[in-house]
């Protein structure tokens, strides 16, 4: 039986956990590809293309920022026109082409500069070689833009929110989605990075490319089992229409009774399948878009003059989400240093496990992934059942509290990183290696484990809480767009890292080439100052987040629950009600 939008009483025969292997395989292979290259990309750029450290770091964060910004485009296409399934499918093909080009550029010698020779300056990649690299990265960024926002929302779509039992499974899905993604990243930073460092970049990129091809096939095979929701038109257009209508009616006096504001269930049917948004008292100037005048045709309204309460509340929900969304940017800025300066630290330290085997510097992220996966499993299996007894919430604590815990742990991560850098440089100084950046400093790379592990724990709390927040609080017709906001925060965090690195590099420059972030010798820099600067920014960000969370208003929604549909009809459920009660108690 095929499920279509608006049929609340049709028994659901599609979706559920049976579809998860097909959906997760696509996301896992995308992460295997992008992380397998991204984690070790700074090594590729500095060793194979001979870029300076700061230029390579900025190239990496710019690529990460672009790949996290394109989800806005992918989300718009999915929500407005193509639907999530076809957006994921086409984007995966584009991603496949980009990965293939990237693999070819790593295999063919003419697409890279010649190797460095002793006593000779290394030749950097020429314009043509960089153009091929950037073109390949652009295709993967575009492909990621269609996959990232849609896979999460598409997976959550497989559970019916109007069914209380299915709704509970939605929150478990976010934990296991992130666990699956983390497991894929773990393979990337161990197996794939090892292959890149010890066998070659051709195989190191070829394996993720082949895995991506297989995942596309698996995802398409699962099509008959998916629960597909039709696109409901451009969400951005509706938001603009509300703004225009409110502006046109800006001179009207606000009515005293909100029940007199315009509502039209038939008009909103396609964008309120899971529930109708109720009127809130905030941002009353937008309510003017729902005031009916003599010029308005209530049967066939002009959306540029008259909008329903539901559509006005869609805009209010998006605006209310903004401050919480912005709080995640600085955390990503801190997290981004793992693939840049933390990796450079690891390259200077003793990475031997045995006399003949040493850990690739890019594989140090394994400690981030391991701590993240362990935290997710602990959170889902132990923490939630215990804390649920005290809070009464199905998911243990609210996503706002979960995010707050992540912010605090991230502060500890960068604070610790600064002290570890001081230790590393002291050992280099004691052994007379300050002026020799290519020599291995006799200090174990495992000194870096605390900062990597703390970042993993912070991500398990902050990132999953962020996902839950966006999916829960976003209007129903903007779920893909909400997931894109998650990736946009990551994008801006990477760009903020680029700006911060550039500014610090510029303004910390001193006499005789001294610099906090030197181009060629990290031992002579003041990387610990840079880490502590990020720590200070995160502390300020935490205070900002606490204020935003305290005054945040959860969206109210009227839902028709399946268990009550035959007898009681509509039941009003204030989404986030339990969270509000919990916040007030705390």
UniProtKB/TrEMBL annotation:
It is found in: Membrane. The chain crosses the membrane at residues 85-111, 131-155, 176-195, 201-223, 318-337, 357-379, 399-420, 483-509, 529-552. GO terms for cellular component: membrane. Signal peptide: none annotated. It is a multi-pass membrane protein. Coiled coil: none annotated. Keywords: Membrane, Transmembrane, Transmembrane helix. One of its GO terms (molecular function) is transmembrane transporter activity. SUPFAM superfamilies: MFS general substrate transporter. The keyword Transmembrane helix applies. Belongs to the major facilitator superfamily. Phosphate:H(+) symporter (TC 2.A.1.9) family. Belongs to the major facilitator superfamily. Proton-dependent oligopeptide transporter (POT/PTR) (TC 2.A.17) family. This is Protein NRT1/ PTR FAMILY 3.1 like. It comes from Actinidia chinensis var. chinensis.
């Amino acid at each position: 039986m095929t499920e279509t939008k608006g049929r609340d009483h049709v028994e659901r025969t599609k979706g559920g956990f049976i579809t998860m292997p097909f959906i997760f395989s696509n996301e896992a292979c995308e992460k295997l590809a992008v992380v397998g290259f991204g984690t070790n990309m700074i090594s590729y750029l500095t060793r194979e293309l001979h870029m300076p450290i700061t230029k390579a770091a900025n190239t990496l964060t710019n690529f990460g920022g672009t790949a996290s910004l394109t989800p806005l485009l992918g989300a718009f296409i999915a929500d407005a026109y193509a639907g999530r399934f076809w957006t994921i499918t086409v984007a995966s093909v584009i991603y496949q082409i980009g990965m293939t080009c990237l693999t070819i550029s790593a295999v063919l010698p003419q697409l890279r500069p010649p190797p460095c020779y002793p006593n000779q300056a290394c030749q950097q990649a020429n314009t043509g070689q960089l153009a091929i690299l950037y073109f390949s990265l652009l295709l993967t960024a575009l492909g990621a833009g269609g996959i990232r926002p849609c896979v999460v929302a598409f997976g959550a779509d497989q559970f019916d929110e109007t069914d209380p039992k299915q709704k509970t499974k939605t929150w478990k899905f976010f934990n296991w989605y992130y666990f699956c993604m983390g497991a894929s990243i773990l393979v990337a930073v161990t197996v794939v990075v090892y292959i890149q460092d010890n066998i070659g970049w051709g195989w190191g990129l070829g394996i993720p490319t082949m895995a991506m091809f297989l995942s596309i096939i698996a995802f398409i095979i699962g099509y008959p089992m998916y629960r597909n929701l039709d696109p409901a038109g451009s969400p951005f257009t509706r938001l603009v229409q509300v703004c225009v209508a409110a502006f046109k009616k800006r001179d009207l006096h606000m009515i005293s009774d909100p029940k007199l504001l315009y509502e039209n269930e038939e008009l909103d049917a396609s964008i309120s399948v899971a529930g109708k948004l109720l009127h809130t008292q905030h941002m009353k100037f937008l309510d003017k878009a729902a005031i009916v005048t003599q010029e308005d045709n209530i049967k066939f309204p002009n959306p540029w003059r008259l909008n329903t309460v539901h559509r006005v509340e869609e805009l209010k929900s998006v605006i209310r989400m903004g401050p919480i969304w912005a709080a995640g940017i600085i955390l990503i800025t801190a997290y981004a240093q793992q693939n840049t300066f933390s990796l450079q630290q690891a390259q200077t330290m003793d990475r031997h496990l045995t006399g003949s085997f040493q850990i690739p510097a890019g594989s140090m992220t394994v400690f981030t992934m391991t701590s993240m996966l362990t935290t997710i499993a602990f959170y889902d299996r132990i923490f939630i059942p215990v804390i649920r007894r005290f809070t009464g919430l199905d998911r243990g604590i609210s996503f706002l509290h979960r995010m707050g815990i992540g912010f605090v742990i991230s502060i500890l991560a960068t604070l610790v990183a600064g002290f570890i850098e001081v230790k590393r440089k002291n050992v280099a100084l004691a052994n007379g290696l300050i002026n020799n950046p290519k020599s291995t400093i006799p200090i174990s790379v495992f000194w870096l484990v605390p900062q990597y592990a703390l970042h993993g724990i912070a991500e398990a709390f902050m990132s999953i809480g962020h996902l839950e927040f966006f999916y829960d609080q976003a209007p129903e017709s903007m779920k893909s767009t909400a997931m894109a906001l998650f990736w946009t925060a990551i994008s801006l965090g990477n760009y903020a890292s680029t700006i911060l690195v550039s500014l610090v590099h510029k303004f910390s420059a001193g006499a005789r080439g001294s610099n906090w972030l030197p181009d060629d010798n990290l031992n002579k820099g003041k990387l610990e100052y840079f880490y502590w600067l990020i720590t200070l920014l995160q502390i300020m960000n935490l205070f900002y987040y606490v204020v935003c969370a305290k005054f945040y208003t959860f969206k109210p929604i009227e839902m028709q629950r399946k268990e009550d549909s035959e007898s009681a009809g509509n039941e009003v459920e204030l989404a986030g009600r339990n969270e509000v009660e919990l916040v007030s108690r705390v």
